[in-house]
Amino acid sequence: MAKQPMLKFVTVNRDMPEKRGADARSQDFNEIYAEFAAAKAAEQASRCSQCGVPYCQAHCPLSNNIPDWLHMTATGRLKEAYALSQATNTFPEICGRICPQDRLCEGNCVIEQSGHETVTIGAVEKYITDTAWEEGWVEDIVPGAERGESVGIIGAGPGGLAAADRLIRSGVQVTVYDRHDRAGGLLTYGIPGFKLEKDVIMRRFDQLEKAGVKFVLNCNVGEDLTFQAIRGQHDAVLIATGVYKSRDLQGPGAGAAGIVKAIDYLTCSNRLNFGDTVPEYESGELNAEGKKVVVIGGGDTAMDCVRTAIRQGAESVKCLYRRDRTNMPGSQRETKNAEEEGVEFVWLAAPRGFAGDPVSGVMVQKMRLGAPDASGRQSPEVIEGADYVEEADLVIKALGFEPEDLPTLWGEPDLPVTRWGTIKAQFNTGKTDLDGVWAVGDIVRGASLVVWAIKDGRDAADNILETLNAQVQVAAE
Fold first, then answer.
1. Which residue, 151, 383, 440, 453, shows the most beta carbons closer than 10 Å to its own?
2. Cβ atoms 185, 300 nearer than 8 A
3. In the prediction, which pLDDT does 35 show?
4. pLDDT band, residue 36 (cuts 50/70/90)
5. Distance CA 457, CA 436 (A)
6. Are residues 289 and 264 in contact, defined by beta-carbon separation less than 8 angstroms?
7. What is the DSSP pairing of strand 361-372 with strand 388-391?
8. Phi, psi of 251 (to 5 degrees)
């Protein structure tokens, strides 16, 4: 199958009269872009082979009916495609933007496996739902017959919001508690706006609030409100806090000024995009402009940091990772995007310490890959005598996240946790051994994907409803 050529916008300005206003030019561009997007979506969707064994669907955590909504898109039935997509995915426009499709649906596309480039499933999914919003096909949530039970959800990230959506539709009263001043969790403050526009998240928040979901924001459970109080106010509680404790680095100079956590850096950047005043940015502490930036880590958070630093006008941006490109945990697509934007990757390099205070450099140990570790990945080994110093004015630690000690923070020693500190909950239902308490997403799985949190939230909401219905039935008998 021949590679499809990319269409370009080169004729847009030529077709516009010289003396038309900016608004008219913008309108023309938007109309032409819409036609372009529609054509590309239909073209890509029509490339789906409609194979007998849809590996794309099998490798989607939500089991989205991808072949069918691709066929509907290809045949112009876009509203039906949206309805089918929304049936299995609470937030398809978000997954279309940030899912690592290269590791999930697209990476397992039969066409991709045959060497002819994958169908761009994520882009089509995004287009379908964006069009649905523009055309008014996304309907208000209409709650079912009001029930007397209420559910408290701790955490307004993707897992908590997905659960809130399903519960409010069933008539259950829902209250969501979150530590931040805006809903969305890491969707709002951890993922850059160039990957996930913030109005995309806020309109889902508005939709839920309009449906009757109550949001208690700026609420730190354990400080502003006890976990016991939340349990006492609701018939069921769902924990969907995510994992926010940053993994740290040790070594000489690790406490120097200019060495910052990825979550702080990304939160600052996202707050700026909302128009907030952020003192740490104004002071230069979390501002990469004009600086030599070194990001340590190889996951998707590291990619978000390096690409944000480029946009802030850094003098240079380097990413240190202790393994090679093949063994990095982050998306290869994200890595390629970062390289195209000017990021330099330094493979097989690990920090041994830091020079200067404020930081002036990272002491780097060169590595080689040895025998596989317990996960099957080759373990990095230090090459003795190959150390050097990488210049840096700003060092961003993007080493991943771990769960906070919730039993201690919340004064709830009976909350069951694993040896890794994640909450111990049943697979597929999220139910814990603590009566009336469920848990979903990263706080159960460890740092994972948004799409898994959405699935967990939907599954737990269904199990909560089953439990509440059973209780009603028992009471009636």
1. 440
2. no
3. 64
4. low
5. 15
6. no
7. antiparallel
8. 120, 165
pTM listed for this prediction: 0.90
d(CA 369, CA 378): 6
Tokens of 185: 């969790």
DSSP label at 424?
Answer: P
Distance between CA atoms of residues 310 and 204, nearest Å: 29
Tell me if 367 sits within 8 A of 322, measured CB to CB: yes
Cα gap 375→136, rounded to integer Å: 47
Residue whose pair of structure tokens reads 């400080």 in the numeric block = 223
266 contact partners, CB below 8 Å, separation of at least 6: 189, 190, 191, 192, 301, 304, 305, 308
**pLDDT tens string 301-321:** 999 999 999 999 999 999 999
Q: What is the rounded CA–CA span in Å between residue 10 and residue 29? A: 11
Q: What is the rounded CA–CA span in Å between residue 124 and residue 73?
A: 8
Are 413 and 407 contacting, i.e. CB atoms less than 8 angstroms apart?
yes
Identity at 170, one-letter amino acid code:
S
CA-wise closest residue to 155 among 140, 175, 125? 175
Does residue 424 surpass a pLDDT of 50?
yes
> Between vectors from CA 130 to CA 126 and to CA 132, what angle results, nearest 5°?
120
* Side-chain-side CA neighbours of residue 81 (13 Å): 27
The DSSP secondary structure of 89-127, one letter per residue, reads: -S-HHHHHHHS-TTTTTGGG-HHHHTTS----HHHHHHH
C-alpha to C-alpha distances, 42 to 1, 38, 63, 136, 389, nearest whole angstrom: 17, 6, 22, 20, 51
Rounded to whole angstroms, what are the CA distances from 412 to 152, 311, 405, 444, 472? 16, 43, 10, 17, 28
Q: Are strands 437-439 and 259-261 parallel, antiparallel or unpaired?
A: unpaired
